[in-house]
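Lecture 7, part 2: worked example. A protein chain together with zinc ion.
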Amino acid sequence: MTGIEKSLLRVIATVLLYALASPILLLKAIAAFWKQLSTIDRIRSGSITCPWCGDAIQLNRVARCTVCSATTPGSLLQCSHCHSTFATVTCDACTSTVKVL
Ligand SMILES: [Zn+2]
Ligand SMILES: [Zn+2]
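Predicted complex, written out as structure tokens:
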């Protein structure tokens, strides 16, 4: 078997492997898409429920940025001054850190 034949077989095996895995990759992409839609819905509702104490955490209010120390009104997930983004918020009732994104 020549080097060209080995290379051709390697390419065919790779293409075949991707073809066999494509349904699984498609299902994973659909699951990731639905998870992102769910996260967007939670953020657009304006508040999230703390999983530890059940209190409603308002996502839009006056808050102090931990990066630039500016105190501005707006979303807790993005500073309107320095545009830093945050994936977690702190519950005011029980002071727990809640993952939003
Ligand atoms: Zn900031
Ligand atoms: Zn809480």
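The beta strands are 47-49, 56-58, 60-64, 71-75, 88-90, 97-99. The mean pLDDT is 93. Keep this in mind for problem set question 3.
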